[in-house]
Amino acid sequence: MAYHNVPESGDHIPYVAGNLPAPYSPPMPTQPLNGRAMHSPPVQIGDVLVRGSVVMTPVGPLPLSGSRWMVVSQPMPTQQTQTWAVVVAALFVVFALVAAPFTCGGSLIFLLGLLFLLAKRTEIAGIATVSIQSTAGMYTAQEHVNSAEHAANLVQRVNFVQALAGMPHW
User: Fold this and answer.
1) pLDDT tens digit string along 150-166?
2) Is 128 exposed, middle or buried (0-12, 13-18, 19+ CB in 10 A)?
3) What does the DSSP 8-state code read for residue 116?
4) ∠ CA 153-154-159, rounded to 5°
5) Could you report the per-residue pLDDT of 119-151, keeping only the tens digit for each?
6) Are the beta carbons of 125 and 78 closer than 8 angstroms?
7) What is the pTM of this model?
8) pLDDT for 80-98, tens place per residue?
């Protein structure tokens, strides 16, 4: 990509061909903070901890700079019948059996009780796999996902770490 029409030295927005501004990148600190390349909160992804410019894995540290992160999240929804619905349906069946000799509508009470079994609860569960490729090696971490919000949060954490990996480290 050829740069031209570069603005004055006080202006920090580089221009690319066609006078379009380059993609925004936040300003970087001019000097390392506490001897580290950046000052960011530690990020936990499964059994991996990202702190500063190091990715700490169970098999050893990997450099964050230049690493590539990929997440595959496959939560699966499952439906379960509510416990209270099973109990109420069983009570209706017992009541229908007891009341059947005395009423002609015992089968209607039985059918009404079966309608409670339609009460379902949907749960989302699964495993998300995060692959890390670095110059020093490769590691795959897994994290159990128990809701759609948890899966979205995991993807946000991976995107945040990927953005940190693309930043220059001193």
Assistant:
1) 888 999 999 999 988 88
2) buried
3) G
4) 95
5) 898 888 889 999 999 888 899 999 998 888 888
6) yes
7) 0.59
8) 888 999 999 899 888 888 8
Percent above pLDDT 90 for the chain: 19
Q: Dig out the tokens for 38 from the structure.
A: 């950046």
CA distance 159 to 165: 10
Q: Specify burial of residue 69 (Cβ count, 10 A radius: 0-12, 13-18, 19+).
A: buried
- Length of the chain as a residue count: 170
- CA 5 – CA 93 distance, rounded (Å): 82
Residue with tokens 């936990």: 44
3-state secondary structure 20-53: EECCCCCCCCCCCECCECCCCCCEEECCEEEECC
